[in-house]
Amino acid sequence: MTFKYQSDYDKLSEVCPPKHFTKQEVNPAFRWLFDEHDQRNFVPQYHRNPKRFIDTNDKLKCTAMGLSFFKDLQRAEERYKQLSEIVPNIGKTIGTYTSKGFILAGDGVNGDFGHLSHFTHHAYETDVFKERFEIVKS
Amino acid sequence: MNDINSHILPFKKLGDLIYHEGPILSLFIDDDANMFLYRWVDCDDYTNKWMISSISSFELSQFYHKTLSLRQYYEKCNQWAIVEIDNSLKIKKLYPLDLLPNEYLPKENSLYRDTLYTEFSNSLKAMYINRLAVISQHKPELYEVLGFDFVNNDDDGQTNVLFKKNIKDFLPKSSDVTEIVQLFRALNHNVRKKILELVSKNAGITITEICTKLKIEQSMASQHVAILRLSNLLISQKKGNLVLYVTNYKKLEEVQTAIDTLTDSKKIIYQ
User: pLDDT tens across A69-79, in order?
Assistant: First the structure.
């Protein structure tokens, strides 16, 4: 199967997604969204706002071509709080609502869980998430 | 920022300090080794706005020591600009603002947090705090630019970064010993230390406010403030009938450098 943004991955000098990413189910998973029907909700940051990537290397660009999720709601909220303390407008670029849903092993590949349970997901198809994720908090 | 009169920024990115789905706070350096923070502050459908501000090594050190929040840094920063830049760092638009909108300022609680900042930033922090850090992923040349020497440690293949051993590099810009002695004398008094701390937290404070907050007589406050002013640790600014005091961070930086020189030379000798 090819990834949704495979043609963009191919332009990078780094292997994207990284080889250590694996297929695994994550249930529940959490993601910040703009609004229930906002077209940007499951568009990776790099494609949503490419001008934000000033002087950024291909490794980080690859990360931004994936979708950000969290495994833990409380930790996701903590991360959001920390980011908004530094940049009060952060919601304008990453969304303002917390949504809850799930990722199946066949949806794509996931990176390791990082700080505050954050992980990056590279999807084969992103439309499936629109049905699976519901806003739980604003 | 007065310095930004060119449409191409001659800055090189050292690394991202905060990264979430893209750079949020990054550290840049120019050809003269002046450091700048780039902080993403806003966007709409077409543009991204960044706040560019100059930051000294001393401020960065204070930030990593958690004695200066990002908010406090921006509040006393007088070299900043809000710009729209493209991927090649060309300024597409400069937004002239006299005052920063509140939504562009970090919140009060913006002290350094290890969990929010990147591995690159935590390595810098380790260098500023311990003067020694182990790096494996970041380019050694960046640390050279910041004033660190590096040596390879063959045991684990990682690179140990040490402060430059050349003491000349750490001599204060004003190397006049008499002035340094005067500076240390000025600092070596509890009341003056309290005054400096108070002024650094309340830029533009008056002598009356200093007396009230520290509960000391005006004559005593005036005497100590005069010593700090003569040593250039405090700067006075006249506004109408009031005389306002602000900290001279540049001078404090010289003091810090002088202290670093002494302490580092000791470490080097015993290594």
Answer: 999 999 999 99
